[in-house]
């Protein structure tokens, strides 16, 4: 295979401004919001020609957030503890603390964002 399997992701939100503030604070990034005829998207930063995929927060009636159903997106991190330290201060919930995966695969944690989505964090250390 000559490409990564994931090319884009979308995270449902009910309040774009609240979700934008959460993700910007936890990941120390800037999200740009675009209204595409009522389909509101908050685009995550993109690093062209770098590994990994980018995606968007999406506010639209067709999208429903869930802390238990649907895909689980893993965000890469230098150290999961960095983002975990920011989660609760901006309205999120830590569902599973930093946990070693085993067999040299690094560490993971589970978080519920301000929109009731379950997301994961992953780091090698």
Structural description of this entry:
This protein is an alpha/beta fold and 125 residues long. The chain has helices at 16-27, 80-87, and strands spanning 8-12, 32-36, 39-43, 54-59, 74-76, 93-100, 107-112, 118-123. The strands form two sheets. The chain has a four-stranded mixed sheet, with helices on one face. Strands 5-8-7-6 form a four-stranded mixed sheet, covered by helices on one side. Strand 2 (32-36) and strand 3 (39-43) form a beta hairpin. The longest helix is centred in the first third of the chain and has 12 residues, at 16-27. The model has no long low-confidence stretch (mean pLDDT 94).
Mean pLDDT: 94
Name the beta content range. 35-45%
Q: Could you tell me the number of beta strands?
A: 8
SSE-based structural type: alpha/beta
Rg, alpha carbons? 14 Å
Helix tally?
A: 2
Which blocks of ≥5 consecutive residues have pLDDT under 50? Answer: none
Termini Cα gap: 27 Å
- Order of strands, main sheet, comes to 1-4-3-2
Tell me the quaternary state: single chain
Shape: globular
Tell me about the biggest sheet? Answer: 4 strands, mixed
List the secondary-structure elements in sequence, H or E: EHEEEEHEEE
Which range best describes the helical content: under 10%, 10-25%, 25-40%, 40-55%, 55-70% or over 70%? 10-25%
